[in-house]
Amino acid sequence: MAKDNTITFYDLALATGATISPFVWATKYALKHKGFELDVVPGGFTGILERTGGQTERLPAIVDDGKWVLDSWGIVEYLDQTYPDRPALIPHESVATLTRALDAWFWRAAVGPWMRSYCADYRDQCLECDKDYVTTSREIMLGMKLEDMQAGREERLPKISAELEPLRMALRDSPWLGGAAPNYADYRVLGSVLWLASVARTPPLSAEDPLRDWIERGRDLFDGLGRHPGLNTLYGLEPRDGDPEPFMKVGGAAGGIFKRNTGPASTQAETRKITAKA
Amino acid sequence: MAKDNTITFYDLALATGATISPFVWATKYALKHKGFELDVVPGGFTGILERTGGQTERLPAIVDDGKWVLDSWGIVEYLDQTYPDRPALIPHESVATLTRALDAWFWRAAVGPWMRSYCADYRDQCLECDKDYVTTSREIMLGMKLEDMQAGREERLPKISAELEPLRMALRDSPWLGGAAPNYADYRVLGSVLWLASVARTPPLSAEDPLRDWIERGRDLFDGLGRHPGLNTLYGLEPRDGDPEPFMKVGGAAGGIFKRNTGPASTQAETRKITAKA
């Protein structure tokens, strides 16, 4: 398997050369996590079926010593099954299930709303040959002209950022979603964040966002895999008067469920407050 | 440790006898998962500090052969560390991190909004001696009279149910959040669902909700631990005209990220749609 430790990887990139799809980004990290070198086949949305010899209309796709493997989850399962002696991407089946929940939440809370806020930026940074396809397909998906959909995003961006509290909460006591070291849960969400960096021409996150540390450590992995020069700046969102805070200060609103009860001294301030005793 | 395989468990219950707190429910399941018998100390909110001999103002709390352990996460960590030869509650550190994310999301999307929809029901089912404390503390937390906060819930309940799609998505391909068998991720969310069943005097979920199967299997565990007769019916929510669907039919809106690409035949219908080719 994997001649010269190298796997063929079909990329999906913008005119900047940066990978675009969250799924393709996550797969790139997954291959590196398993210790492989990538033989990258470049390209955009146009001509995937031809480029892959009729194997697939969608990416990611890999070829491992002649064997085609499709689909981001399919590739992860293939890699863990085929190379069990290399670091696991999904170290327990519960990690797969919980990552699906997290990914579904992140998609709903963030990726969808960000897509609607950056859809024209997205098209504008595509390869010239992809622009018609991206415009048509995204306008059908979104049900609106890309420029109209994107308009008014300064109203929406602080709200999207405020929705990310569950991820901030998870990373408050752990360096990675994987625990002491990253695993596919990290790469899956990071893939969407790197998609965001590939399209966002105005920053989606505050410079002080607690997620910044995790994102930047993730970009540093594997000799700076997430540091392509074509990526846009993620930080610098400035809420205007009346906007929600883009992230929760001092523990967050859901702090109650994450505080540790170590005895009465740890709870008496709250008790005084909720029993209205001064 | 654990004389006669029994651990002392401080319960927190309503007048119905049903456990109320999500954290106490989750802990009850955790102890059973580790194979222990429970020596239950009954009681409500009033007098926890006295009942526990000054050890804590909050529950859950357990005593294992004289050793006090507080806090729902603290108890889970204690049980896995002290009894590593019994089934793990948290089989990998990534499961802890991802469960925190899932729990934070569920709290924000569902438990908080349900609390605001059932806060007067909650108080009405408390022990007589707890009613003043519950009224005062919850009115301070919620910033409003309980009856006023609860009013209009028929408007809100279908929307809360519609927000649960990430959990439905995770459980579509797996019997438990833990994978083939339940673990603390299941008990943590199930604890909140059982809290809901303890308070909800009008059903929060549709009879056809795909989560029903997982919830009911969870209630069956450990000789029907989640089948206390004081619990209310969870199913029977009927959306009115104009309400959102309480759950997604046929794969869900986020289906795109969960469909498997197995080659062009699996994607060509979508391709025709998004390229506007009939």
Structural summary, described in words:
- The structure is a homodimer of 278-residue chains.
- Chain A is an alpha+beta fold.
- In chain A, strands 2-1-3-4 form a 4-stranded mixed sheet, with helices on one face.
- The first copy, chain A, has helices at residues 22-33, 48-51, 72-82, 93-125, 131-142, 146-150, 153-162, 165-170, 184-199, 211-224, 264-274; strands at 6-10, 37-41, 61-64, 67-70.
- The first copy, chain A, has 2 domains: 3-82, Glutaredoxin; 93-224, Glutathione S-transferase Yfyf (Class Pi), Chain A, domain 2, CATH 1.20.1050.10.
Summarize this structure as a short list of keywords or feature phrases:
Glutaredoxin; Glutathione S-transferase Yfyf (Class Pi), Chain A, domain 2; 6% strand; homodimer; 278 residues
Q: Strand sequence of the main sheet of chain A, in spatial order?
A: 2-1-3-4
- What's the total count of β strands of chain A? 4
Query: How many domains comprise the coordinates of chain A?
Result: 2
Give the termini separation of chain A.
Answer: 70 Å
Task: Summarize the main sheet of chain A.
Answer: 4 strands, mixed
CATH topology of the largest domain in chain A: Glutathione S-transferase Yfyf (Class Pi), Chain A, domain 2
| Model regions low in confidence, pLDDT < 50 over at least 5 residues of chain A | none
What count of helical segments of chain A does DSSP give? 11
Oligomer kind: homodimer
The CATH class label of the largest domain in chain A is: Mainly Alpha
| Share of β-strand residues of chain A | 5-15%
